[in-house]
Task: inverse folding
């Protein structure tokens, strides 16, 4: 149950970190969105505008086919689809081109027209897009007119032959009726008049039958022929349908917003460096003993000595307290400081930590066991002619090998001339003896070593000291390197007390957003500078090594 609660807290913290990340880079996200939107706006503004005119027609289905069953409904939809296809055929398009005098081909005109059926209705929507709004409306309306004429001609063609035959017969019989009517009027002989009237009656009966057949054909034509009615006439559009400048601009801005935010989050997810104290706890399973802010001092100076009231010096005092109370059951009298790789600031940390420890009145000895690239003596302005390397060559005691510094209660044992086999010397019994001699003359012993992953010097020394602290440079120390360093030290049963985050720069865009909870500390430093007094301009150098 406790584990589940812890996991949920971690998830919440991750969400807040991502929100903080996006808030920190909000200016960049907004800038990208504005640039994308502005680019889309400029591009859209240069495009030729197209105007869309639309009209709606209704299909008047033939009365003979109008029923209420499902088959009739299916036939109605099929008829609408058929008309939609016929409307875009070449004969109709050619008639539209000829009537409007267009200088385009039927294929080009077809690309401008869209015909679609409205679902579950007998309506067709016809839309026309062109660069001329007046022409778009004219094409839409003319297309309906020409198609209406042609569809009537196509359907009437089935009855035209029967009607023409009946019309010819009616004309012939009508002439015979007229002839015999005139004969009947002019004949005086009763017998002859009776014969003429009989003929006249026969032709009139035939004419009536033909006329009835003709009317039946016309009635059949009216019952089976469908027609179309223009429900809504196309009007001249006033606003272009494309490009939609506003929509395009907003979409481009939104895409820029999403892509920039996604890129920032992806960069954060793929980032392999340690950024926050939470990551130290989660990845290394170690506590954070101190957080040292980025600071600048003149070359060869230590901020804890130069500016004892600065916030950074207070951070080193906090580190001193945390180291002192790291374990009450097993006091820490000998402390080794190392890092995973060069340039993470272990020498700066151990040098300043030595100063604040000496300021408590205890005797502190700082051993420079970096027998490959020593720098401690430079920070304290000491000579490196005598040191640890001489103690390996003789069985003598320290005999003044530890040099006094200008810091009261602090002495330094430098490396001396660099030996060819540092790892073997540091892992020897003689090194344990040297450490014991130093411990007899000091209350607290600090040991500076080379980076753990570069050489094995720190690994061979770690088991013989009371504790080890690791220096991590936020945004520079790789998580994989830090984990490997911890694994190496634990493999030799080293007592790793915790981690110091060094050179934290909250103004850096690289990882400053992770430290929103240190803002008050930063504000204090910004106001007072590094000495506890109001900041003044001077030439300074950053202390990172």
Result:
């Amino acid at each position: 149950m406790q584990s589940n609660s812890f996991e949920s807290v971690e998830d919440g913290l991750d969400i807040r970190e991502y929100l903080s990340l996006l808030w920190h880079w909000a200016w960049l996200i907004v800038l990208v969105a504005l640039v994308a939107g502005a680019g889309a706006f400029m591009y859209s503004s240069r495009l030729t505008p197209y105007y869309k005119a639309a009209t709606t027609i209704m299909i008047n289905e033939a009365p003979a086919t109008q029923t209420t069953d499902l088959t009739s409904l299916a036939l109605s939809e099929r008829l609408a689809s058929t008309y939609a296809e016929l409307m875009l055929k070449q004969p109709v398009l050619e008639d539209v081109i000829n009537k409007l005098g267009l200088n385009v081909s039927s294929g080009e005109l077809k690309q401008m027209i869209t015909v679609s059926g409205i679902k579950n209705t007998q309506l067709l929507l016809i839309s026309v897009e062109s660069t001329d709004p007046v022409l778009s409306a004219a094409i839409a309306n003319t297309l309906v007119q020409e198609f209406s004429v042609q569809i009537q001609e196509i359907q009437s063609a089935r009855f035209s032959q029967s009607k023409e035959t009946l019309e010819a017969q009616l004309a012939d019989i009508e002439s015979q009726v007229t002839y015999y009517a005139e004969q009947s009027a002019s004949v005086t002989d009763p017998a002859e008049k009776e014969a003429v009237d009989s003929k006249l009656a026969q032709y009139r009966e035939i004419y009536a039958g033909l006329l009835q057949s003709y009317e039946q054909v016309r009635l059949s034509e009216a019952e089976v022929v469908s027609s179309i009615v223009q429900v809504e006439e196309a009007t001249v559009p006033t606003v272009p349908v494309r490009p939609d400048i506003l929509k395009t601009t907003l979409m481009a801005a939104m895409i820029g917003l999403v892509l920039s935010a996604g890129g920032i989050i992806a960069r954060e997810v793929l980032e392999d460096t340690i950024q926050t104290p939470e990551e130290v706890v989660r990845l290394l399973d170690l506590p954070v003993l101190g957080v040292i802010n980025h600071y600048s001092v003149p070359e060869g100076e230590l901020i804890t000595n130069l500016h004892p009231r600065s916030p950074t010096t207070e951070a080193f005092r906090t580190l001193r307290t945390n180291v002192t109370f790291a374990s009450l059951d097993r006091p820490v009298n000998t402390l080794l400081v190392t890092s995973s790789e060069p340039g993470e600031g272990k020498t700066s940390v151990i040098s300043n930590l030595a100063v604040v420890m000496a300021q408590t009145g205890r005797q502190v000895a700082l051993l420079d066991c970096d027998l490959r690239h020593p720098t401690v003596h430079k920070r304290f302005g000491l000579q490196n002619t005598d040191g640890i390397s001489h103690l390996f060559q003789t069985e003598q005691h320290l005999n003044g090998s530890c040099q006094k510094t200008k810091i009261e209660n602090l002495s330094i044992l430098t490396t001396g001339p660099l030996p060819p086999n540092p790892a073997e010397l540091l892992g020897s019994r003689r090194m344990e003896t040297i450490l014991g001699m130093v411990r007899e003359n000091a209350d607290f012993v600090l040991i500076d070593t080379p980076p753990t992953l570069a050489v094995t010097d720190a690994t061979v020394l770690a088991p013989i000291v009371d504790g080890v602290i690791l220096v991590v440079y936020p945004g520079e120390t790789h998580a994989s390197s830090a984990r490997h360093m911890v694994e190496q030290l634990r493999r030799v049963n080293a007592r790793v007390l915790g981690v110091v985050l060094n050179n934290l720069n909250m103004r850096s865009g690289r990882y400053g957003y992770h430290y929103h909870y240190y803002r008050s500390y930063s504000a204090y430093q910004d106001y007072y500078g590094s000495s506890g007094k109001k900041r003044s301009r001077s030439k300074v150098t950053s202390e990172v090594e």
User: Anything to note?
Assistant: The radius of gyration is 50 Å. Residues 134 and 294 are 70 Å apart (CA to CA).
